Amino acid sequence: MRFNKIMTALAATGMMLSFTTPVHAAKAKYKIVTHKQTKYYPHSKIRFYFQQPVLQGKSAAVKKINKSLANHYKKDLKSYKKYGYEEAKDVSSWYPNYNKAAAYGLDEYTGTHVYNGKKYFSAGYHRVDAAYQAAHEWAEAGTYSLKTGKKLKLTDLIKGSKKTIAKKIYKAQDKDNKSTLKGLSLNPNKMEFIVKGNKIYITRHSVLFCYGGYTFLNPVKIDK
């Protein structure tokens, strides 16, 4: 499956906007910088697409947030170059007589959705890896204080011990989510999330079992 076909299919089915969160707000000023790279080999190619949020302003908090967001992008690109390029080279050696015009594709797509408030700035990352007709989707996220620029943890927003916070997360879920979370060690300091209004939406990626799609758990209220 080619990259553009995957993107067209996602758009057609609404999957690019099918996460369980409200519509975007618009408080802090920002822009989205799109990074694209394509690397060709004799019988394979890889394509990289990443949307990086960049906050507007010159405050210390804004600079701190932008540095963190930039590092997220740079880390992803570095990893993809290392492992993606190695795999693309391998494919070229596996299929020395394969038609270059029909080269195998290895693609990564990261679409970013921004959530703003008066206190918080969140970036939700919709990740899609497509390799040789197979695609895998998942979510990543990061939330920052607009006052300090600090990247926040759940313990910064929810009262109680780690154990108490884990219980609050579990209690807020429906039957299906509770079944998924049962038996898992929910470490609030390792869970990724976005904030919308006074609610926290935790991604199904990170320490949680991921079974595909750009989805979040049922929200938990900010009480701190």
Model description:
The chain is α+β, with helices and mostly antiparallel strands and 224 residues long. Helices cover 28% and strands 32% of the residues. It has helices at 3-13, 60-94, 162-171, 175-181, and strands at residues 30-41, 44-55, 104-116, 120-131, 134-145, 193-196, 199-202, 220-221. It has a 5-stranded mixed β-sheet, with helices on one face. Strands 6-7-8 form a 3-stranded antiparallel β-sheet, with no helix packed on it. A hairpin with a 2-residue loop joins strand 1 and strand 2 (44-55). The model is unreliable at 5-26 (pLDDT under 50).
H/E series: HEEHEEEHHEEE
Structural class: alpha+beta
Helical residues, percent: 25-40%
Question: What is the mean pLDDT?
Answer: 82
Number of helical segments? Answer: 4
Which strand-content bin applies to the residues? 25-35%
Sheet bearing the most strands, described?
5 strands, mixed
The total beta strand count reads: 8
Query: Order of strands across the widest beta sheet?
Result: 1-2-3-4-5
Distance between the termini: 46 Å
What is the approximate shape?
globular
How large, in whole angstroms, is the Cα Rg? 19 Å
Uncertain ranges: 5-26
